[in-house]
Amino acid sequence: MGFVPLADCAPIVMAHELGLFSKYGLRVALHRELGWATIRDKILHGELDAAHALAAMPVAATLGLGSIPVDCITALVLNLNGNAITLSNALHASGVHDAIRLREEIIAQRHRKTFTFGIVSQFSSHHFLLRSWLLTGGINPDRDVRIVVVPPPQMVSNLKAGHLDGFCVGEPWNSVAVQSGVGWCAAVSAELNPGHPEKVLMVRRDFAMKRPSEHLGMLAALMEACEFCEAAVNRDHVASTLARAEYVNVPARILRRGFEGPFDFGHGKIRHVPRFSVFQGGDANEPDSAKAAWVFQLIRALGMIKNPAALSFALGRAVFRTDLFEEAVHLRRSIQVSHAKEISSIDQIIVA
After folding, report:
1. Which residues does 86 contact at the CB level (< 8 Å), separation at least 6?
2. Phi, psi for 328 (deg, rounded to 5)
3. 115 close to 106: Cβ distance less than 8 angstroms
4. CATH no. of 2-80+198-259+269-336
5. DSSP summary character for residue 245
6. Is the pTM for the entire model greater than 0.90?
7. Using an 8 Å Cβ cutoff, are 276 and 230 in contact?
8. CA-closest candidate to residue 81, choices 249, 274, 286
9. Euclidean distance between CA atoms 135 and 173, whole angstroms
């Protein structure tokens, strides 16, 4: 199972560390990958069975957008929100404090500099959010700036080197930029587009069909892990686990900011951001039609598809599998009931 070092890989890491995969009879090896292109290619070519993935990746892979077409699905949303837009401290020093002032700086520098911004993938919420934010300041994302793809862990070093003027990425890399003194946070996705689906569990369709018990076991284990990650009482444990070198390799105190804050925007601006990243609660984990529709909206808005009619209701149902989500919910309940009966039987023996 692949993951990219981000705060929202937490459910996958904690399912492994808490023995939840083993609870459902699975042996899972985690593979840390640099970025989303590697995750996509390894899923498509069978080098990974499952992965932490951008919400739009299963649709893009199924339609062959940016890759060979391979039918992929998701039956679990791992989290909502969790991203932010960070700009360089050089821009802040020049008086840029919002998108409108950024437009003025772009105009002033038009014949001397092309402003460059990083995103993690063309098919990502980050791309959609960044373009939407730029537009609020009257900035044309296609004409006024350059947008490039950079793996999440490399965003801060590129900002520091001056190769980027800003980026949109998931935590903890915004907080790392602020802590390092090279950037400041201009906006967070929980406020730009509240409740947007962010990461999902992605598998090939043939994996889900040929190995259904393993797939359902993964889903059930990850549901428990999402619940664990959402509980405030567990946040220190989650952050300290992700901080380890084999996972995100960022200090726990920085990782914790991206869970529930208080979030440090830089330059003395610190405030609580409700639901900065949501791992569980309500229908957060269900891959329902509303989340499929949001992904379709993203793909259309980014102009990544020549035939928008391909983004049909039937495709949404084929990729966003609520039926398998419900099966995993039932599996989890049956395991919980079985475990409760087991504990009860042991207690009775002890009493006897």
Report:
1. 155, 159, 166, 167, 168, 169, 173, 174, 177, 178, 183, 184, 185, 186
2. -70, -35
3. yes
4. 3.40.190.10
5. T
6. yes
7. no
8. 274
9. 23
Tokens of 188: 């967070």
Q: Which has the closest alpha carbon to 183: 161, 214, 204?
A: 161
Architecture field, domain 83-192: 3-Layer(aba) Sandwich (3.40)
| Tokens 């990425």, located at residue | 169
With residue 166 as reference, give the H or E element that holds it. Answer: strand 166-170
CB 54 within 8 A of CB 125: yes
Given the DSSP bridges, would you call strands 183-188 and 83-88 parallel, antiparallel or unpaired? Answer: antiparallel
- Residue 287 CA to residue 203 CA, distance in Å, equals 14
Spatial separation of the C-alpha atoms in residues 176 and 258, rounded to whole Å: 11
Q: Which of 137, 117, 120 lies closest to 40, judged by CA?
A: 120
**CA nearest to 268, candidates 131, 102, 97, 62:** 97
Long-range contacts of 154-159 (CB under 8 A, 24+ apart): 154/34, 155/86, 155/118, 156/180, 156/182, 156/183, 158/118, 159/86, 159/88, 159/118, 159/183
Sign of CA dihedral 97, 101, 103, 104: negative
Q: pLDDT in tens for each of the 352 residues of the chain?
A: 999 999 999 999 999 999 999 999 999 999 999 999 999 999 999 999 999 999 999 999 999 999 999 999 999 999 999 999 999 999 999 999 999 999 999 999 999 999 999 999 999 999 999 999 999 999 999 999 999 999 999 999 999 999 999 999 999 999 999 999 999 999 999 999 999 999 999 999 999 999 999 999 999 999 999 999 999 999 999 999 999 999 999 999 999 998 877 999 999 999 999 999 999 999 999 999 999 999 999 999 999 898 889 999 999 999 999 999 999 999 999 888 666 556 555 555 555 5
Same fold, 2-80+198-259+269-336 and 83-192: yes
Instruction: Provide the residue ranges of all domains of the chain, joining segments of one domain with +.
Output: 2-80+198-259+269-336, 83-192
